[in-house]
Write a structure and sequence with these properties.
The complex is a heterodimer of chains A (348) and B (236). Chain A contains eleven helices and 18 strands. With 348 residues, chain A is an alpha/beta fold. Chain A folds into two domains: 185 residues, Alpha-Beta Complex (Quinone Oxidoreductase, Chain A, domain 1), CATH 3.90.180.10; 125 residues, NAD(P)-binding Rossmann-like Domain (Rossmann fold, 3-Layer(aba) Sandwich). The model of chain A has no long low-confidence stretch (mean pLDDT 93). Chain B has 236 residues and is an alpha/beta fold. Chain B has seven helices and nine strands; from the N terminus they run βββαβαβαβαββααβα. Chain B has a seven-stranded mixed beta sheet with strand order 5-4-1-6-8-7-9. A two-stranded antiparallel sheet of chain B has the order 2-3. The longest helix of chain B is centred in the middle third of the chain and has 14 residues. Chain B starts with a strand and ends in a 6-residue tail after the last helix. The mean pLDDT of chain B is 93. The chains are: A alpha/beta (348), B alpha/beta (236). At the A-B interface, strand 1, strand 2 and strand 5 of A face helix 1 and helix 7 of B.
Chain lengths: 348, 236
């Protein structure tokens, strides 16, 4: 089946392609209806990676946060019209046992598999009219959840993945550094998954912090943070301010504390290793999420309070009628300083 | 119900190929007509499909429908001598089983790049207005010549559109238009909307797309192949 597709071919340049979709026996055809632009998509859009990396990536369909509806499913797992989210992290089938397989380890999982394919990174993403996709990586959106909202499932699943990276006891005070979308979603997710523990958020924008679901919010640099006895901290800052945030966490976290790094820094950064040693801290890296995290994320969305919280992140709905609208959406997201995202509604 | 009528009764004489009609030409492992039928077969609002086909190609078509698992085709209708007669044959067949207010979406089998969006717009507008034509605004200035040697006039470009398919109608209206044309011995129309206009009924416009072009020449075939080939670029 023929369908339209927008691929990035060089920095700030999309081209229209016509894809011929050929379904494998385990795949269904999904019409992409809603999607959101992630920071990683913006990096590819701007060409903010080294030239060789980009040479291997372009041309590529961007977007990995998406919801759609089933058009054809010969596996009979879904009905035509079923609304689904697409899990962007896939493990390709292999005949061989994976060496040092991490997929079955609860704290790691398939999102750390070196053979994993990730849509819009080393595999084509969802900026297209239709995608043929393995049914095992499609999850039905509960009837009560609007598909626009379901585009946030990927980010919620990343928050769940960050949460499961550590085995929390249940009542620890947890600090979240970062007043962006991931910080907001992580604090809302922790509110549901870690209800007995105190949740502290540290950021730089007082107005934004006022909207967070947290027990207490602080502006970065506030000396009172050290009085909170934070045992676990999540860094959700990334970019050029990640070093500043991580060093503040190192300063403020309790002795023996655990730090989960969730933000992506573009360049190698300097952090205070002397203090990490002195305080006996542990650092954990997290990236992406697994199919199981997606399932848990969709279950969270069934909760109306959680839905209401995440709904605040929808800034507007932008209709994508053609490739020029797609350009405009990327340019708009580059200039977006609000707490939230524009949801793209595909009508191509 | 929404029923697609796919016109595949042409012989492809304009392309020079003698062994098969152009709608059966293979493009990257799949005949053009199958590329087109897949779009309709997978459209959630299309309930059934009728294909109007040359009688000597019926079996070939049946084999292709089976091989490519096209499931919604309910009627294979024998084509007529002209496009108008082919559509009329389909209208007669459908009238035996379908309701008067069912929507008939008539489409050329050699426009494989029709989109779900265009089909949905056709169905919605046909339900509202009864008759719709898919068009794109003319980007070129169009000149009118009667003798093929000199210009008679240059019509205002902003009033000109290029007609595509689908053209969609309420079944009763389309049947009335064809029966009037037949009664008046007007048998060579290349466009069903013209026949509806003869009834002094309005035909509304639905926005088409340049890519929804018709494969009528080798140039068009080359263009289609190039467009699809681009999409086959694999990531490393």
């Amino acid at each position: 089946m023929l369908g339209k597709s927008f691929k990035i071919v060089e920095p700030r340049r999309f081209d229209l392609y016509i894809d011929d979709l050929v379904c494998a026996p385990d795949e269904a055809v999904v019409k992409i209806e809603y999607a959101a632009i992630c920071k990683a998509d913006l990096r590819y859009y701007l060409g903010a990676r080294d030239k060789k990396t980009l040479g291997f990536k372009y041309p590529m369909n961007l977007l990995h946060e998406a919801a759609g509806s089933i058009v054809v499913d010969q596996t009979k797992n879904f009905e035509v019209g079923d609304r689904v989210v697409l899990v962007p992290n896939m493990i390709p089938p292999t005949k061989h046992e994976c060496e040092n397989c991490v997929c079955q380890q609860a704290d790691l999982g398939e999102n750390y598999c070196p053979h994993a394919l990730f849509a819009s990174s080393n595999y084509n993403g969802f900026s297209r009219e239709y995608v043929n996709y393995p049914v095992g990586y499609l999850l039905k959106i509960p009837a009560k959840v609007a598909p626009q909202l379901a585009t946030f499932t990927e980010l919620v699943s990343v928050a769940i993945s960050a949460y499961r990276r550590l085995n929390l006891q249940g009542d620890e005070t947890v600090g979240v550094w970062g007043d962006g979308v991931l910080g907001f979603i992580l604090s809302a997710t922790l509110r549901s998954l870690h209800p007995k523990g105190k949740i502290i958020v540290v950021g730089k924008d007082e107005h934004r912090l006022g909207r967070f679901l947290a027990d207490r919010c602080y502006l970065a640099g506030d000396p009172e943070i050290s009085e909170e006895n934070i045992l676990v901290a999540y860094e959700c800052v990334g970019g050029r301010f990640s070093a500043e945030a991580i060093n503040e966490i190192i300063d403020q976290i309790a002795v023996g504390g655990r730090i989960v790094l969730a933000g992506v820094a573009e360049e190698p950064i300097g952090i205070n290793t002397r203090k990490i040693l002195e305080k006996g801290l542990s650092l954990y890296g997290v990236t992406r999420s697994s199919r199981a995290d997606f399932k848990k994320a969709l279950n969270l969305f069934v909760n109306e309070g959680f839905q209401a919280a995440i709904s605040q992140l929808i800034l507007a709905e932008t209709i994508i009628n053609d490739i020029t609208d797609f350009y405009r959406a990327f340019e708009a997201e580059l200039g977006n300083k609000e707490l939230g995202k524009n949801i793209l509604r595909f009508n191509i | 119900m929404n029923i697609a009528v796919i016109l595949a009764g042409g012989s492809g004489s304009r392309m020079g190929i003698v062994d098969k009609p152009k709608q059966f030409i293979d493009v990257y492992g799949k005949p053009i007509i199958i590329h087109t039928l897949e779009v309709f077969d997978n459209h959630p609002e299309i309930d059934t499909i009728a294909v109007v086909c040359l009688s000597e190609w019926m079996d070939d078509l049946r084999i292709l429908l089976r091989r490519y698992e096209i499931n919604k085709v309910k009627w294979l209708v024998e084509g007529g001598e002209t496009r108008q007669l082919s559509v009329y044959h389909a209208v007669k067949t459908l009238s035996q089983e379908c309701a008067d207010d069912d929507i008939i979406v008539v489409h050329d089998s050699v426009r494989p790049l029709v989109t779900h969006k265009i089909i949905s717009s056709n169905i919605a507008a046909a339900k509202q207005y009864g008759a719709v034509d898919t068009v794109v605004p003319s980007a070129d200035t169009i000149v009118r010549s009667v003798d093929g040697v000199t210009i008679r006039e240059v019509p205002l470009r902003k009033e000109l559109y290029l007609g595509q398919t689908p053209q969609s109608f309420r079944l009763s209206l389309l049947r009335r238009a064809h029966e009037k044309a037949k009664a008046e011995n007007n048998l060579n129309s290349t466009d069903d909307c013209q026949l509806v206009l003869e009834l002094e009924e309005e035909v509304h416009l639905v926005q088409g797309e340049k890519l929804n072009f018709k494969i009528t020449s080798f140039d068009d075939l080359l263009l289609l192949k190039a467009i699809i080939k681009l999409g086959k670029t694999e990531m490393l």
